[in-house]
Amino acid sequence: MVYWQTLWLATRNQLLHPKSALLTFFFSTLNTLTLYVLWLLLFDRFPRIGRADLSDISFLFGMATAVVGLTTYLCGGIFELPYLIRTRNLDLLLLNPKRVLTCLLPRQSLLGGVATALSSIVFFAVSEYVSWSDIPFIVLCIANGLIVFTSVILWTSSITFWLPSGSEISRYFEQFMMTFLLFSETWFSKPVRLLLYTLIPVGLISYWPLSIIKEPSLKQMALITVASGGFFLVSLLIFSLGLRRYGR
């Protein structure tokens, strides 16, 4: 209940300035479409790059924009966690230690994330792999991706509890993930792929879902859900340990 109230307040505050909200929507959408146009131009010249074609990249764009957009809107407060830790402004949230995350996640909700997430519909529609019967799988994959992306930002931000430079580490991880989300898995060597399924788990957000959509499998869907839950639990543990250190 606290989460939804905080999210509504953050959304309402932005809607009080409709011109600003519209500009945010416009530029968020424009930024996403500009990146996609660059890929369109590239694949117009080279129909296949490695084992990837435009349908692959379109699906990856769909997953990336859906996950990043929803994270920005539903869990935007996670991005300011390093700042709150470094400046000791996390104290207000600790007044109710059992609800720190539910208060933190929606406090910096950004409406631009909604525009980014909605643009994913265009990319899924362009991809040849997506049909109406795939929608349940896509929704579950997006939910898992949201959990993974938020978890990574949470544990990398929590490094700030121990190291003042943790905010820089978190920002680098965020940039790495947002970059690799738009690249095909087939372009990387096996060691790099291993990295992209573990330390920088973009594979769970976009690569694995692409393989599931190509060959739908309930078993694979269950595995990716378990993996996403595991990342969340590890991130929650690191965050909890950091809170204990912060409270000393």
For this entry, give a set of tags:
globular, 2 strands, 248 residues
> What is the count of structural domains?
1
Structural class: mainly alpha
Shape: globular
Spans with pLDDT under 50 lasting ≥5 residues? Answer: none
Number of helices: 11
Arrangement of strands in the largest sheet: 1-2
Quaternary: single chain
H/E series: HHEEHHHHHHHHH
- Radius of gyration from CA coordinates: 19 Å
What separation lies between the terminal Cα atoms? 29 Å
- Beta-strand proportion: under 5%
The overall average pLDDT, rounded, is 82
Helix content: over 70%
Biggest sheet character: 2 strands, antiparallel
Number of DSSP E strands? 2
Helix-strand layout with pairing:
Elements: H1 2-15, H2 18-45, E1 48-49, E2 52-53, H3 54-74, H4 81-86, H5 100-104, H6 112-126, H7 135-158, H8 166-180, H9 190-195, H10 202-214, H11 218-246
Antiparallel strand pairs: 1-2
Helix pairs in contact: 2-3, 2-6, 3-6, 3-7, 3-10, 7-8, 7-10, 7-11, 10-11
Report what the structure shows.
By secondary structure, the chain is an all-alpha fold. The protein has one domain (16-43, 52-246). 71% of the residues lie in helices and 2% in strands. It has eleven helices and two strands; from the N terminus they run ααββααααααααα. The chain has helices at 2-15, 18-45, 54-74, 81-86, 100-104, 112-126, 135-158, 166-180, 190-195, 202-214, 218-246; strands at residues 48-49, 52-53. The chain has a two-stranded antiparallel ribbon. A hairpin with a 2-residue loop joins strand 1 (48-49) and strand 2. The longest helix is centred in the last third of the chain and has 29 residues, at 218-246. It is globular, with a radius of gyration of 19 Å. The two termini are 29 Å apart.
